[in-house]
């Protein structure tokens, strides 16, 4: 089982050579909780483009977002993760003014979204791919949006080409597949050439080529110095796309850090062992209190001890080791451990399936 240590760090990271705005480094990290209170390192949020402060949203007796504070800065992709019902979509809706916070605040470039004079040029959003006029063509849908913001027809043609809808631009959007609807929604988000892009589950309905396309697009937008804030339930894709993560559970902040630093918090990582005497070594390790899983003939996955101790035990008995190393935890493993107590729907079968998935991943 992967567990997550409650640590925090305050390393500074630059945003690369593409920034439009100046950067002084300095960011706040928060990983895990201690005694029910968040572990935080606070630094000035001078670079924060999206900034949520003590954000609360209640619907009657239900608290969907609970004292949520985080920042999203330019120059990299920030993933927004959490179990179903964690408050991700509600938070994104509050960022763009579709829901009003019960208390707290959220700003984009220091202003509430509704205070921006040309919001499409400031913030591009995809929160619901079905929010289109089904009777209009893709081109006419985008043109109507463009005209409402003083954007020319040339830009409409550009984003249609960018998202790969050129061949269907004159077809009714109501007949689009889910994946084509996603592409049209992304085109709408990019129409005003915004500095900030907010996308809710943008890979939904996309085939593998489409997933690769959106990954390349998001990383390219971030490399240009834009702020990219994207939610997803696909941990493997977030591991390839995002550099920073904001993770929530039951409306509360669980982590605000980099992918690399989050994975580094994993403890009790399995140790991979390959030996021609794996059977004998496995029995010795079990006697020493470790948990041992046979992966393949001559290969073991060991938890409950360290690679150093395994090497010592093998040396004491004169056993040959061909391979010995601590496995790197995956983002999915760390995420599942971090959010274990924050899921609204869990069962014993879910836990068993999770363990089986982890064993298969180790075996692979």
How would you explain this protein's 3D organization?
The structure is a single chain. It is built from twelve helices and 18 strands. By secondary structure, the chain is α+β, with helices and mostly antiparallel strands. The relative contact order is 0.15. It folds into two domains: 262 residues, P-loop containing nucleotide triphosphate hydrolases (Rossmann fold), CATH 3.40.50; 57 residues, 2-Layer Sandwich (Alpha-Beta Plaits), CATH 3.30.70. One of its GO terms (molecular function) is ATP binding. This is ABC-2 type transport system ATP-binding protein. It comes from Quadrisphaera granulorum. Keywords: ATP-binding, Nucleotide-binding, Transport.
Write the layout of secondary structure elements.
Layout: E1 3-4, E2 30-31, E3 33-34, E4 37-38, E5 50-59, E6 62-72, E7 77-81, H1 88-95, E8 103-108, H2 119-122, E9 123-126, H3 138-148, H4 153-162, H5 178-190, E10 196-200, H6 208-223, E11 227-231, H7 235-241, E12 244-249, E13 252-258, H8 259-264, E14 266-267, E15 271-274, H9 278-287, E16 291-296, E17 299-303, H10 307-316, E18 323-326, H11 331-338, H12 348-363
Parallel strand pairs: 7-11, 7-12, 9-10, 10-11
Antiparallel strand pairs: 1-14, 2-13, 3-4, 5-6, 5-8, 12-13, 15-17, 15-18, 16-17
Helix pairs in contact: 3-4, 4-5
């Amino acid at each position: 089982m992967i567990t997550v240590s409650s640590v925090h760090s305050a390393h500074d990271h630059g945003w690369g050579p593409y920034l439009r705005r100046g950067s002084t480094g300095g960011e706040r990290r928060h990983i895990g909780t201690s005694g029910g209170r968040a572990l935080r390192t606070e630094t000035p949020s001078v670079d924060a483009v999206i900034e949520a402060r003590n954000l609360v949203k209640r619907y009657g007796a239900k608290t969907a977002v609970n004292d949520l504070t985080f920042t999203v800065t330019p120059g990299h992709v920030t993933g927004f993760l959490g179990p179903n019902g964690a408050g991700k979509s509600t938070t994104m809706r509050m960022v763009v003014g579709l829901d009003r916070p019960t208390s707290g605040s959220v700003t984009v470039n220091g202003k509430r979204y509704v205070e921006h004079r040309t919001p499409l040029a400031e913030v591009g959003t995809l929160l619901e791919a079905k929010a289109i006029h089904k009777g209009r063509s893709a081109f006419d849908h985008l043109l109507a949006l463009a005209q409402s913001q003083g954007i020319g027809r040339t830009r409409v043609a550009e984003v249609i080409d960018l998202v790969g809808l050129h061949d269907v631009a004159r077809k009714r959007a109501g007949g689009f597949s889910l994946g084509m609807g996603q592409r049209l929604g992304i085109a709408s988000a990019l129409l005003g050439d915004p500095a900030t892009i907010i996308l809710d589950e943008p890979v939904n309905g996309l085939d593998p080529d489409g997933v690769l396309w959106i990954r390349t697009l998001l990383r390219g937008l971030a490399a240009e110095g834009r702020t990219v804030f994207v939610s997803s339930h696909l941990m493997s894709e977030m591991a390839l796309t995002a550099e920073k993560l904001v993770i929530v559970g039951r409306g509360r902040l669980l982590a605000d850090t980099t992918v690399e630093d989050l994975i580094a918090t994993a403890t009790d990582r399995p140790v991979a062992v390959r030996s021609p005497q794996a059977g004998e070594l496995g029995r010795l390790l079990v006697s020493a209190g470790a948990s041992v899983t046979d992966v393949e003939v001559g290969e073991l996955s060991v938890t409950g001890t360290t690679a150093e101790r395994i090497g010592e035990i093998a040396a004491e008995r004169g056993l040959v080791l061909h391979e010995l190393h601590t496995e790197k935890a995956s983002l999915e493993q760390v995420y599942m451990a971090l959010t274990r107590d924050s899921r609204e729907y869990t069962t014993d079968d879910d836990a068993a399936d999770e363990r089986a998935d982890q064993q298969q991943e180790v075996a692979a």
